[in-house]
Design a protein that fits this description.
Shape: elongated
Strand order of the largest sheet: 6-5-4-7-8-9
Number of domains: 2
Distance between the termini: 9 Å
Largest sheet: 6 strands, mixed
Helix content: 25-40%
CATH class of the largest domain: Alpha Beta
Order of helices and strands: EEHEEHEEHHEHEHEH
CATH superfamily of the largest domain: von Willebrand factor, type A domain
CATH architecture of the largest domain: 3-Layer(aba) Sandwich
């Protein structure tokens, strides 16, 4: 997803290293254009990328899985900062749970706080938090997360979902996740990828077209980093 920058030539300069033949021919008809027949090599501006990491905060993520997800959040923020990419992190239970706003990349205490909040939400003991780890309403939360991402001023958008189980919602069903995923995947303004954390998560491929299941806990951080960094 990280756009590459390639050198290209731009015309219309009063000096440069190469003459544009088309501009030179045009100058024959209009002498005023003779001062703008040169071209120069230039690097185009990098397209703006906005990326959102959506993490399952249900109770099945307790322990080592939550620790793996926390490590992925730290790497996600670090890669985003290094690449100059706007990134954010939300969790989901029956509703979206904000963890790391898009504007907090360079705020190390805020990144650390988001990691702590993730673990506490999974345990159901975050002070002042949502704390409803019994539920994971994947479908509605996926739609809401995509709306947040589409609201960002960007040329490219990436939404990565990390989950370890099937939908077990307070207000939705598995069928609603499938419908939500197809709706988001059909929007050309963003790319949706799902990662199933741990063994027995191959079912993510039943819901998402672009999915990787059975991701080892120790490989999650690297997997999200590759997605954000373009491999």
């Amino acid at each position: 997803m990280t756009p590459r920058r390639r050198l290209r030539r731009r015309g219309g300069w009063a000096s440069g290293d190469t003459v544009s033949l088309s501009a030179l021919m045009g100058a024959e008809a209009d002498p005023r254009r003779r001062e703008r027949v040169w071209t120069r090599r230039s690097v185009p501006e990098r397209a703006r990328l906005s990326a959102l990491l959506l993490v399952d905060l249900s109770g099945s993520m307790r322990g080592e899985k939550a620790a793996a997800a926390a490590g992925a959040v730290v790497l996600w923020a670090g890669v985003g900062r290094r690449l100059g990419v706007e990134v954010g992190v939300w969790g989901f239970q029956d509703v979206l749970v904000p963890l790391l706003p898009f504007s907090s990349l360079h705020d190390a205490p805020r990144v650390a706080s988001s990691v702590e909040a993730l673990v506490e939400e999974v345990e159901g003991g975050r002070p002042g938090g949502h704390n409803r780890p019994r539920f994971n309403d994947d479908g509605p939360c996926l739609l809401e997360a995509s709306s947040l991402l589409l609201g960002r001023a960007a040329d490219l958008r990436l939404l990565v979902v990390v989950s370890d189980g099937r939908p077990d919602g307070l207000r939705s069903s598995s069928g609603e996740l499938l419908a939500a995923a197809r709706a988001v995947e059909g929007d050309p303004r963003l790319r949706l990828v799902a990662l199933g954390l741990g063994e027995g998560t191959g079912h993510v491929g039943l819901f998402y077209r672009s999915a990787r299941g059975d991701v080892p806990l120790g490989a999650l951080a690297g997997a999200v980093g590759e997605l954000l960094g373009g491999g």
